[in-house]
Amino acid sequence: MMSTDRAGAILVTGATGFIGSHTCVDLLAAGHRVVGVDNFLNSSPRALDRLRKVADRDLDFVRLDVRDRDALDEVFRRWKIDGVVHFAARKAVGESVEMPLEYYDTNVNATLGLVRVMAEHDVRRLVFSSSCSIYGTVDRVPITEDTPARPTNPYSRTKWMCEQILADVCAQDPAWHAISLRYFNPVGAHPSGLLGEDPRGVPNNVMPYLAQVAVGRRAELAIFGDDYPTPDGTGVRDYIHVVDLAEGHRLALDHLDDQPGHRVVNLGTGTGTSVRELLDAFSAACGRTLPHRVVPRRPGDVAALVADPTLAREALGWTARHDIARMCRDAWEFQRLNPAGYDDEEGA
Ligand SMILES: NC(=O)c1ccc[n+]([C@@H]2O[C@H](COP(=O)([O-])OP(=O)(O)OC[C@H]3O[C@@H](n4cnc5c(N)ncnc54)[C@H](O)[C@@H]3O)[C@@H](O)[C@H]2O)c1
């Protein structure tokens, strides 16, 4: 892997979360120095031990709330930071409808504060976690980056607002370089089975739900609707392996300086998989047909969301490498080895 020739470290916010932890591993393997921050709102301190173990290299870590500007300022005083990957956010669509202020505070206010502190310390290189959910209901797939954003819930609006803030900041000051990565559906786990997705409470997404059915923590998968205009009637999504996604962040950092300003880039495979196909792939991975039942559609769900990943290939040299069988295999391995998630274990 390419190593950095910059002297400073990469600040990763949300470092112990699902995508953040895998990205820290990738950055450390590529020779970057990493400073991680997280307040463990939706992650376990054990993820930190695991990521150190998997990377076999150390990172510096500070427990802080990204809304706390003084604490962020202290990080920039203590370490020389070259660039920032900003993952820390609340991410559940349904919850965002229930508690919009928390979402605007954590996702938008914290990003404003971070950008301000970065500028005060003369750091103007940022990779931001955005989401394909900002596209809302689309007229056609695959989805290119110039598809108009039509966010349909507070969570997606926070991501869209952050993108616009970054675009305005970059337009005003050409010293800024920012890339918003619009992820499609991140799934899978590190192949070691040591790092993975460990949602708190009932999983919002189908893959961790399936994994919990497979390990016996949930009775069956509810398939929300089989009357969509898709080949088998179930919803189609573009699942992307978290290891591929992590690599996308490193490449985005490598290519930040290629052009000034704010850019948006989809990270997806370009291949759609239906819920039934996913169920079959996961059943093959865990060796038994998983119980499931078709229930009515969920309000707000759309038939198909699939990325056009051309820009990621052209601008970042990035292409997803893992297929759906591999995503299921790795997700299952993590769940099998950690039946109750990270907090399952006796010690770190
Ligand atoms: N997983 C997905 O399906 C998906 C899809 C598109 C975009 N995203 C975005 O990617 C990013 C990472 O997602 P993830 O799946 O790894 O989620 P995650 O919840 O596993 O990780 C987010 C991390 O941020 C931390 N965090 C939350 N609020 C914080 C605060 N105020 N201060 C410090 N830390 C805080 C959490 O403790 C957690 O460790 C998020 O911005 C999310 O919106 C995720």
Automatic annotation (TrEMBL):
<keyword id="KW-0413">Isomerase</keyword>
<dbReference type="InterPro" id="IPR005886">
    <property type="entry name" value="UDP_G4E"/>
</dbReference>
<dbReference type="GO" id="GO:0005829">
    <property type="term" value="C:cytosol"/>
</dbReference>
<comment type="subunit">
    <text>Homodimer.</text>
</comment>
<dbReference type="Pfam" id="PF01370">
    <property type="entry name" value="Epimerase"/>
</dbReference>
<comment type="pathway">
    <text>Carbohydrate metabolism; galactose metabolism.</text>
</comment>
<keyword id="KW-0119">Carbohydrate metabolism</keyword>
<keyword id="KW-0520">NAD</keyword>
<protein>
    <recommendedName>
        <fullName>UDP-glucose 4-epimerase</fullName>
        <ecNumber>5.1.3.2</ecNumber>
    </recommendedName>
</protein>
<comment type="similarity">
    <text>Belongs to the NAD(P)-dependent epimerase/dehydratase family.</text>
</comment>
<dbReference type="GO" id="GO:0003978">
    <property type="term" value="F:UDP-glucose 4-epimerase activity"/>
</dbReference>
<dbReference type="InterPro" id="IPR001509">
    <property type="entry name" value="Epimerase_deHydtase"/>
</dbReference>
<dbReference type="InterPro" id="IPR036291">
    <property type="entry name" value="NAD(P)-bd_dom_sf"/>
</dbReference>
<dbReference type="GO" id="GO:0006012">
    <property type="term" value="P:galactose metabolic process"/>
</dbReference>
<feature type="domain" description="NAD-dependent epimerase/dehydratase">
    <location>
        <begin position="10"/>
        <end position="268"/>
    </location>
</feature>
<keyword id="KW-0299">Galactose metabolism</keyword>
